[in-house]
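Case study: Siroheme synthase CysG.
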Amino acid sequence: MQHFPIFLAVAGRRIVLSGGGDAAMAKLRLLMKTEARLTVIAAEIAPDIRKWAAAGKLQIIERAMEPGDALCASLFYAANEDDVEDARVTAIAQAEGALTNIVDNLAESQFITPAIVDRDPVTVAIGTEGAAPVLARAIKADLEERLPSSLGVLARIGKTFRHAVDVLPMGRKRRDFWSAFYFNKGPKAVAAYGEAGVLPALENLLDDHVMTGAVQGHVDLVGAGPGDPELLTLKARNALDKADVVIHDRLVTPEILELARREAIIIDAGKTGFGPSMKQSDIDALIVQHALDGHHVVRLKAGDPTVFGRLDEEVEALEAEGISYRIVPGITAASAAVANIGQSLTRRGRNSVIRLITGHDTKGYADHDWTALARPGEVAAIYMGKKSARFIQGRLLMHGADPATPVTIIENVSRADQQIIATTLAELEPTLSRANLQGPAITFYGLAPRAAVSQAQTLKELA
Ligand code: SAH
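Here is what the predicted structure looks like once written out:
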């Protein structure tokens, strides 16, 4: 980070700007939102700036800047759009102790002004160190849309109400109160009654929250999808936003854990397929304990929690304790993987059944209806199938499957290091041994990557 973001106290302080044209006006529009004392110095001053001066928003000195003009200024902007003049005035301001900025000149500026989303007193500042102004604009546009326009009003009135909320216990209870205010009751009150509706809404809401007694824990059993954060559902994101505790699987990626509420406790309950692992019953107990402590627990599972996720054991443990829970589905590895090889899970005239099968279960290698699977056109998505590949291959061939049946293995689906390996049933082993995959992998029996995808993949490998 080359620039450190701060919010500078400028109320009543002096900010000086040298320049009287378009660049000066653009900066002044921002600066006039503050309570700083603004002085504009330039030999030629645009009519709009004169109007602002007449309205008492700033002071004008109508001549070129001279030594002494920036005395006691905390910030100084050079906006003459003339390199030589900007360098001259900046030298004066620096000698007089101001922090200086030259408009559109990152290298010569001591500070830069971020893109701003203004919901005063809530202000979001976005900076890219000058590297990607387009990106800053896009983020700004996105936030402008997302943050309720009444947020500023709500924050201002909410601030005056903070002491009243002391009747609620600290932590979860208070957070729930404020989140219900800012994102639900508050905006509704403003829409219905304007600013005057906000305080009564706060009072009603507080009454409701005081009435509702002890804190109840809750568990969201959430699908995290295959790894790419963009493949999370909005429900999953919202749950992560609210979580006090996140208990996650080994396969949940760091990028997704990043999205959890900053104060959330993150617990890795990772269970490697064969290595040392936390027992399922211990995980159940862990979830239950945190919920009984009154926390909002997010149990975050790779893919979809209902697919090979041992969801039912956790649900039963919660039901036994009468803990409220909700299941939030996710994109399972098979769905994400098939999309990335340009195929469908089902296809008219090819397969009207798709089997999601596991390579191993509690008893070891899992048995399946091999006769049915061996028929032409069958498709199966094999989860946890790396170690059992030879076993599956043997069973299918023994039951008469065509050795030329396409098989596709996709490792690290949706992640930066995704790898697609196309082979056939006959070649499944040794292809897999050779590939020596370290990441999670899903195997499609009966599907080859669509030609275009396979070609793109080859080009990538050659590159
Ligand atoms: N609930 C998960 C599956 C858990 S079982 C889901 O719906 O996807 C774990 C197996 O899922 C892994 O052995 C692997 O076969 C598959 N898997 C999960 N995430 C994967 C990923 N990103 N890429 C490839 N396979 C994945």
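For the exam, be able to explain this: The chain is about 35% helix and 20% strand.
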